[in-house]
Write a sequence for this structure.
């Protein structure tokens, strides 16, 4: 079984101690977020875990845990989100510090096991398309040689997201715009494809079927597990994810409503105070 850690919270940033305790106990309880009474016990014994896929905006606090994972023979890789959104991500460490963590993690694991996410792309009166091309260009320069893949997606306007962004507009005059797949977006996708290629990055999209010139990505990537770790098996597609998702079947650790990063666009938390 692949363990996703996690789509529901930034586990590496905030819950390394809890994760370590779960490794020691050899299991965790997976709670259905829509039916909390449905609880499943999932083994974390090394022989039962195909691999961990860690999702994080800042896994620096998690670095000491890697020794335990390596000593016990676990396979794992990281989806590491690096944006430059001081307003939308108010509780993050500085961009410089996060880039340094990315580089350190890649130096330890190799660029194939640290995948860069620029996610979500937020279109607003302060972050137009040109802003994102400029920022991705700058970030790619810092991350060149430290990753092989760039995954992008555009902001989804979930109900709770709309509420937070409406508050941001009222307080700071920042107006966010939903994606309109027109010729400007088509040009942006082509320019981004060329930009990624100039840095040796494979550009993929996450659940963006209209993204021109990009392959559909798989964040829980069975092909990567086969190639990097030599796992000789076929991975079934996860039927519980969104339409267009290419992820392999996995079980998520963690719970919604627990991350303290404070990102205004977050789908996984309940209000502005936690994200």
């Amino acid at each position: 079984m692949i363990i996703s850690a996690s789509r529901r919270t930034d586990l590496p940033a905030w819950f390394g101690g809890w994760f370590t305790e779960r490794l020691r106990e050899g299991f965790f309880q997976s709670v259905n977020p829509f039916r909390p009474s449905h609880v499943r016990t999932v083994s974390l014994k090394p022989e039962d875990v195909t691999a961990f896929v860690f999702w994080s905006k800042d896994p620096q606090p998690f670095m000491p845990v890697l020794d335990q994972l390596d000593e016990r023979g676990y396979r794992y890789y990281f989806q590491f989100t690096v944006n430059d959104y001081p307003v939308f991500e108010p509780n993050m460490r500085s961009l410089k510090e996060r880039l340094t963590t990315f580089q350190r993690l890649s130096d330890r694991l190799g660029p194939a096991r640290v995948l860069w996410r620029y996610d979500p792309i937020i279109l607003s009166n302060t972050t137009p398309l040109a802003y994102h091309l400029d920022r991705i260009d700058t970030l790619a320069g810092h991350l060149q040689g430290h990753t092989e893949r760039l995954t992008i997606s555009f902001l989804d306007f979930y109900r709770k997201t709309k509420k937070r962004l409406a508050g941001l507009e009222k307080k700071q005059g920042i107006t966010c715009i939903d994606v309109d797949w027109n010729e400007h977006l088509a040009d942006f996708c082509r320019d981004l494809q060329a930009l990624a290629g100039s840095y040796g990055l494979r550009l993929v999209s996450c659940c963006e079927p209209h993204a021109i010139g990009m392959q559909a990505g798989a964040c829980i990537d069975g092909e990567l597990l086969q190639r990097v770790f030599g796992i000789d098996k076929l991975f079934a597609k996860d039927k519980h994810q969104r339409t267009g998702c290419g992820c392999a079947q996995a079980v998520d650790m963690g719970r919604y409503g627990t991350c303290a990063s404070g990102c205004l666009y977050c789908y996984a938390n309940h209000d502005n105070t936690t994200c």
Notes: Helices lie at 11-14, 16-25, 65-71, 95-109, 129-143, 159-172, 183-198, 222-229. Residues 2-252 form a domain with the pyruvate-formate lyase- activating enzyme fold (CATH 3.80.30). The CA atoms of residues 225 and 231 lie 6 Å apart.
